[in-house]
Amino acid sequence: MKFGIIGCGWAGSLRAEAIANLNEVSLAGVSDLDHQRMHELATRYKVATEVEWQDLINRDDVDALIVATPPPLHAEICIKALDSGKHVLCEKPLARDPDECEQILKASERNGRLLATGFNYRFYPAIVKAREILDSGQIGDLDHIRSYAGHPGGSEFTQSWVHDVKVMGGGALLDNGIHIIDLTRYFLGEVDEVKGYASGNVWNFPGCEDNGFALMRSPQGKVAYLQASWSEWRGYRYFIEIYGKRGCVKASYPPMMTQVIRKDEDRHRPHRKIHLFPKFQIIERFRSPRWTAIQSFMLELAGFVQTARGEKTPNGLGLDGLRSVQIAHAVYRSSLNGTAVRLDD
Predict the structure, then answer these.
(1) Structural domains in the chain (count)
(2) Peptide bond just before 70 cis, omega within 30 deg
(3) Which residues lie closer than 8 Å to 108 by C-beta, 6 or more apart?
(4) Over 90: is that where the pLDDT of 280 sits?
(5) How far apart are CA 321 and CA 220, in angstroms?
(6) Which domain holds residue 242?
(7) Which residues contact 16 (CB under 8 A, 6 or more apart)?
(8) What average pLDDT is seen over the chain?
(9) In a shared domain, residues 52 and 8
(10) What digits encode the pLDDT tens for the residues 74-87?
(11) 70 and 142: one domain?
């Protein structure tokens, strides 16, 4: 599968490096409004450049597009690409609001093309191990979930538009929080009701919460609680705790770790086990977390190709992108009116 990348910033450059490390995919061309950045990336990987992103979509040697632009362009670019018969992998969030997400999904459906959302955290080893443990039945049937993602803001706001509501559609929940929303739903299952609060008293960015809190319920009555924060003063971190009827599993990063506590009937004390991933901890010391992100992008891209062939993979799809944005916006509605929000509304 030959890819084109629209948007040559941080995410786009990591995607390009991931493609370069895979045999089953290749990079055909790139496009960016910043021509210098575009040409630097194209020169590094010896690929074509297109000043206009529409021209990259129309290339015969492009099978799929990676959309790595700021969110306001996602809907227009994704819809154009899907209508042109291309598969699309769009960086998170899928769009600024549910309406834009739904327009993209409709384009995918009417053209029979694959739409995926860039939820690469599903491929972090700690998450993969947690999924394996839950599916194996070691902790019993799922009961509830607690999850968290936070960073301290400041230098973590890599671009000023990250905290511009007109660009992002919201704050922490749509920034770093969108990953933890997706992971929570990945383990919980479908969500049909959301309650929540959003507060913006730390950074005071209009329309962009620096802390968002969500309480979610599945149609089967399973419950999950999560928080997304821009005031995690200890530094970037996330975790998800999955509680079953016989134990729990916690996946966290950094450092990459999966912890299991299992209560067996024939044991007085719970059985505890920690899964460490020393390869990631050692290499990150020398090559930074960028290396870990690229590994997850490689697995995600390989899964994208498999999904396009009709195979089942852990990849985040267009519907997953829509649901995550719906949940974030349901928190905003709930915080304003003080009531629960049903997603089918």
Answers:
(1) 2
(2) no
(3) 82, 88, 114, 115, 318
(4) yes
(5) 22
(6) 123-287+317-342
(7) 5, 8, 27, 30, 41, 44, 45
(8) 96
(9) yes
(10) 999 999 999 999 99
(11) no
